[in-house]
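Support request, please re-run this one:
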Amino acid sequence: MRIARALIVPALLAGCTAANDAADVIARERAKSVVNGVVADRFPGLNSAPITDCIIDAASAGEIVQIAGASVTGVTQSTVEQVVEISSRPEAVQCIAENSIALLGG
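Re-run finished. Output below.
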């Protein structure tokens, strides 16, 4: 019985980890679509994908879930403000600056 538990518990935990990883990927992709739209609206003509990646990387897991929710409920002014707030964090600003230089060929 103990041997069976020793084999089953790790398998169950691995399954939970895989499900959590899949949920994280889905939330990040949905959040990216929302952030990409916000960036494109605020800065038309820019390649918003690298900026979006910087903003997503600077966001907490909870913020990503909130922003991802806007892909279903619609983007509100609160969503836009949240994206702008995250984009002003030092790690996001540095990432955006580095990517902007790369986009300009520097």
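The mean pLDDT is 81. Helices lie at 2-42, 48-58, 61-73, 77-87, 90-103.
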